[in-house]
Write a structure and sequence with these properties.
This protein has seven helices and nine strands; from the N terminus they run αααααβααββββββββ. The protein is of the alpha+beta class and 240 residues long. It has two domains: 92 residues, Orthogonal Bundle (434 Repressor (Amino-terminal Domain)), CATH 1.10.260; 136 residues, Umud Fragment, subunit A (Ribbon). A nine-stranded mixed sheet has the order 2-1-3-4-9-5-6-7-8. Helix 2 crosses helix 3. The N terminus is likely disordered.
């Protein structure tokens, strides 16, 4: 009985140590692959849809990512899942991922009033220089809605859309997506930019709705020269 217990104990210790070694190797390979393509921890977390804390736990070897999470990261990091998961040590297992990371500038509402801001975002020659002057967020290359080079992000600075959109949330705006009722839009009206819910109560008017009742709704004639929809919100990001 003693020998059986001892053998089981030895087996458990061996398996645990082996698991810990694999976890540490996975952590090293995530960091290696991420740094190889010049991506920060925050950028990888954003594009994968994970919190930075979760990614930090994986790179610190305090947690182990699941197989599904490994596959998702491997595609973004341009490596094979089998290499990232330590199934193989063969460096030739690196795979080429054809998708390019899409970076969008993060703007505040006050940035929108600067001269030519939307032209600088959309112009392929001016955009690289423009991006250097702003924080950026990484967008998934797997989602075709992000392929538009005019896309940008807005940092929310008021509570007009709470609780659905909160202060310090990021909303991703695509200027070429036409909104449908109940979607959020970036609108320009009476010389002001705002994020509002889009409604169309009739054929001649649209309504910009504030979720927070402390902020007024705005009913606007479609032929008003004081109004335009800049773009549609296609994603909401919130720091947990």
């Amino acid at each position: 009985m003693y020998m059986l217990f001892f053998n089981l104990y030895t087996l458990v210790i061996f398996m645990w140590n082996n698991f810990m070694n694999v976890r540490e190797k996975v952590a090293e390979r995530i960091q290696l692959a991420r740094k190889k393509i010049g991506m920060t921890q925050s950028e990888l977390a954003e594009i994968c849809g994970y919190s930075r804390g979760r990614l930090s736990n994986w790179e610190g070897a305090t947690r182990m990512p699941s197989a599904q999470e490994i596959h998702k990261m491997a595609k973004i990091l341009k490596v094979s899942p089998s290499w990232l998961f330590c199934v193989t040590d063969d460096i030739s297992e690196y795979e080429t991922y054809s998708g390019q990371l899409i970076m969008a500038p993060v703007l505040g509402m006050t940035d929108l009033i600067k001269p030519n801001v939307f032209d600088n975002i959309a112009d392929p020659d001016k955009r690289p220089t423009f991006l250097k002057n702003y924080n950026v967020v990484a967008l998934s290359p797997d989602n075709s809605v992000f392929e538009n080079p005019k896309i940008f992000a807005i940092n929310i600075s008021d509570n007009s859309m709470q609780p659905e959109i909160r202060e310090n949330d990021l909303v991703i705006i695509n200027p070429d997506v036409n909104p449908v009722p109940a979607q959020f839009v970036l609108a320009f009206y009476n010389q002001q930019y705002s994020i509002r819910k889009y409604r169309k109560p009739n054929d001649t008017q649209i309504e910009l709705v504030s979720i927070n009742s402390d902020w007024p709704n705005q009913l606007i004639d479609l032929n008003s020269d004081k109004f335009s929809i800049i773009g549609t919100v296609i994603e909401l990001r919130r720091e947990l």
